[in-house]
């Protein structure tokens, strides 16, 4: 386990990996992205993302304007944004999408809702982290189980997710989700269910695996609408729950709590947020220029500095918070069969919502 005091605010939706605000943000404080390539035409680009929380949408709007781009940032949870992009593929509203992970973009690509485009900065990233064609990597995000370290000592803390519902001291003390529409929630279950892969099991998962999912819901404290997990931790209503790495430090400051994170022996799910050009946009050239600008080392470096994120762009990583770089260097990534997850996540979500989520 380790303190992640230096990682700052991010997403989420649940959530988690995914901030899920909606609507169009207004310009706010900015970092230094002025040296990145600019040259927008003045057309308004509609951008779908699940990574607009904690001021990201406002920052992007302001910095894009400085570079000559007029953008409308529309926030939604990872799964919701994915479904929206697929539903609108014959009459697209968005021009660009970013923040969604590989699992989501693979679904959007399979639905023929993305157009291949190779950004100007493609050579500065590990292309294997995306698909090297339609979606390209921007930021790494770890999906973690965090706990109130002012109340739970490291020795007494859970060592893995399964401890939450199998050990009496944690039952009813962890927040469990009440919806499966966010990236973080789905990634948490990807990390749990894939441990119980069984070709002869229901939806590829053994009976024991589904028992784990059922017990997660039976013994957790349901999330409270419009109430942050950290607020519940501060009030003593809950002691632990799921969180993306980048939100921890800022939430600790905001809610005046201290959080440690669990490092299971199997590792933690690691999401890579991507950017892509939406197929059918009537502002294709402007959208391509925006992607070149947004994913550039200068802009991603400024984004990393402002939000303590871990950029994939190698030049931008040099500008990231050293503690963030060290955290990810020391982090064990869980070995997950993402092709298997992508093929089954929709059915898993449906089963969970119908059978276990009360």
- The count of domains is 2
According to CATH, the fold-level topology of the largest domain is: D-Maltodextrin-Binding Protein, domain 2
Order of helices and strands: EEHEHEHEEHEHEHEHEHEEHHEHHH
Largest sheet: 10 strands, mixed
Low-confidence stretches: 1-31
Q: What would you say the CATH architecture of the largest domain is? A: 3-Layer(aba) Sandwich
What's the count of strands? Answer: 13
CATH superfamily of the largest domain: Periplasmic binding protein-like II
Q: Quick one: CATH class of the largest domain?
A: Alpha Beta
Strand % is: 15-25%
User: Taking Cα atoms only, what radius of gyration do you get, to the nearest Å?
Assistant: 20 Å
Task: Classify the secondary structure makeup into a structural class.
Answer: alpha+beta
InterPro entries: SBP
Pfam families: SBP_bac_8 (PF13416)
Protein name: ABC transporter substrate-binding protein
Organism: Pseudarthrobacter sulfonivorans
């Amino acid at each position: 386990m380790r303190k992640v005091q230096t990682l700052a605010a991010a997403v989420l939706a649940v959530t988690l990996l995914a901030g899920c605000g909606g609507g169009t943000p207004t310009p706010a404080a900015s970092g230094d992205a002025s040296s990145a390539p600019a040259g927008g035409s003045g057309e308004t680009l509609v951008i779908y993302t699940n990574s607009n929380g904690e001021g990201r949408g406002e920052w992007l709007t302001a910095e894009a304007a400085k570079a000559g781009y007029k953008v409308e940032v529309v926030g939604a949870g990872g799964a919701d944004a994915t479904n929206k992009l697929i539903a609108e593929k014959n009459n697209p509203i968005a021009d660009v999408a970013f923040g969604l992970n590989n699992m989501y973009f693979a679904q959007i690509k399979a639905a023929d809702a993305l157009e291949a485009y190779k950004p100007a900065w493609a050579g500065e990233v590990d292309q294997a982290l995306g698909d090297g064609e339609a979606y390209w990597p921007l930021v790494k995000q770890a999906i973690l189980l965090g706990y109130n370290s002012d109340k739970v000592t490291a020795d007494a803390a859970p060592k893995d997710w399964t401890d939450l519902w199998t050990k009496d001291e944690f039952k009813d003390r962890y927040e469990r989700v009440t919806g499966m529409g966010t990236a973080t929630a789905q990634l948490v279950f990807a990390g749990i269910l894939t441990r119980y892969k069984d070709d002869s099991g229901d939806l590829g998962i053994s009976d024991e695996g589904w028992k784990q999912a059922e017990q997660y819901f039976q013994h957790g404290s349901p999330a409270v609408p419009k109430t942050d997990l950290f607020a519940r931790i501060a009030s003593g209503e809950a002691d632990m729950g799921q969180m993306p790495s980048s939100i921890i430090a800022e939430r600790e400051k905001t809610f005046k709590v201290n959080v440690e994170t669990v490092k299971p022996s199997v590792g933690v799910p690691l999401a890579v947020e991507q950017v892509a050009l939406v197929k059918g946009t009537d502002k294709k050239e402007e959208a391509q220029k925006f992607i070149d600008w947004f994913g550039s080392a200068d802009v991603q470096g400024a984004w990393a500095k402002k939000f303590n994120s871990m950029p994939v762009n190698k030049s931008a990583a040099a500008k990231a918070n050293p503690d963030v770089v060290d955290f990810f260097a020391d982090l064990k990534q869980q070995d997950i069969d993402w092709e298997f997850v992508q093929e089954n996540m929709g059915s898993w979500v449906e089963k969970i919502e119908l059978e276990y989520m009360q």
